Amino acid sequence: MHYEKLFEKGTIGRLELRNRVVMTAMGTMLGDWNGCSTPEQVRFYEERAKGGCGLIIPEFTSVDPDSGHCNRIQLGIWDARQISSFERICDAVHRHGAKIFVQLHHGGREAPPAINGGRQAMAPSVELNSVVGRDTILPREMTIEDIDRLVGLFIQAALNAQAAGADGVEIHGAHGYLLQQFMSPYTNKRTDEYGGSMENRCRFIVRILKGIREVVEPDFVVGARINGNDFVEGGNDQDACVEIAKYLEPYVDYFNVSCGVYASAATMIEPCYSPEGWRSGFVKAIKSQVSVPVIAVNTVKHPQFAEQLLEEGVSDFVGMSRMHIADPYLVQKTMAGREDLIRKCLGCMNCNKSVVAGRTLHCALNPVAGHEVTFGDDKLVKNGNGRKVAIVGGGPAGMQAALLMKKRGFEPVIFEASGTLGGSTATAYGRVALVICILAPLFLCATIFGVRERRDYHTKEVPPVSFKKIWNTITGNPQILWISLVFLLQQIGNDVVMGGLGSTYVYFAFGYEGGLYSLFNTVGLAATALLMIFYPMLAKRFRRKQMMDKLMLLSVIGYAVMIVAGLALSGGMVKFWILTVGYMVANLGQYGFYLIMMISLINTVEYNEYLRGERDEAII
To answer: Which residues are identified as catalytic?
Structure first.
């Protein structure tokens, strides 16, 4: 495929870029405690520049030494040490033909006091910031003096970035950080000149943008990252964000369009079930109303789709951030026509979760990412001299070992019994499908038809115990077969969901880790409560065993839906909701079954009375 648009030169302000691929800002935790870069961080960005990226925007960079930090290790650009350290990043990126912007940031109410010297966070208004899974922060309202001070700090930070050799700056006005907090009525309840109308709410960022433009060189780029939709009730919707973009356009050379705040985190940091290009609507809405270039992140995982976005005029430049973590050489591979060699981002969010947990960046697909100084190819001992080396097993580990040995100068030979590379990874879904196709019908047949008649509870004699009788009892009891089937499908279903969707199915579905399973369990418990309430009515219509059979059938159907959807569908919200509904239906059946079983156990006394001939009808 020819990528005429993707590899076409582009211009932002007076700056020419070699292509339309942008690595937008993401936290890495690779710096040091003083806000300076480290050799690991310099090398991390250098590899992405070497791989062919046109523009690199490193992680959000603090402008204030005293407030606004959101990570305990975060780049800064307020003093001479940081300017010097940023110069090393700029030089490394420029050395390979890429350009670099510095993203200037203040966290506002998202800045925990614990990593800001114990100082209370600042915000446009006193609004409790309480999002599940994050620190609860009560900020103080910023005074006019606070605003004036930060305007000066942003302007000075831009001058510092220019001194470090950067090609431009990007003012972070998205994702619920300070400047976006001022622009959004969700967080700005002020009644002075910085609140109320859209023009007043934009006054803060406009002062910063105008002030920077007045002091930097004419060819120094000044842009802004803004939201295309806050996705939160009371915030800026798409139309409001379009108006903000139109209002800010005279003060910027470009827009970098994103979306979401921490109260709508799943839209801001998309989990794996988000389809490619799902942001296109509000990105294109902004682009159609402004004349400056638009960069957009759009969950892009394939260069073909990036080309499509450019052809359709969705944006002028394509943000591919996590893709560059997974494969820093994706641009070079695409230009060489070897898209098949690209390590495509899974969307598993291991990179995000490692940083949120306070650790350095880790990628599930690329273990070298962020650790190039230690594990880069230049550190390999190349002493193979063409010698052959045997690699036993053609799974992921075997293939990676062969690749590494080849780089070291050996001639690797892979021995794989199956004749197909990929190991258990390649055959996992096939095995799951085989288990479903073979075992599930057997269990269903045994359940529906039974191996033998139900135990005659009118028999008061206790039969002698033998292995054969135990086996016949187990195989002839439909309820035991139901339980076996349900637990089999439950394990397969969970494996399909977690393997096919990744940990973010749980982590981001309703905001944060554990939220989805908590919801499922809550629904199951609520269903159990309803069954308890309506049990007398149901008991009049169904015998207890009939109810248990129906509930277990419901559970089997739920898990079957999960398995089929997990194996057959490629992703997106349709798959997510099918899996969600399937899981909830399965839980409803299981919880209901357990309820009836508990009632049966509670009524064991009644059953014993029946065996003694003291009751006239069967309880079970």
So the answer is: 177
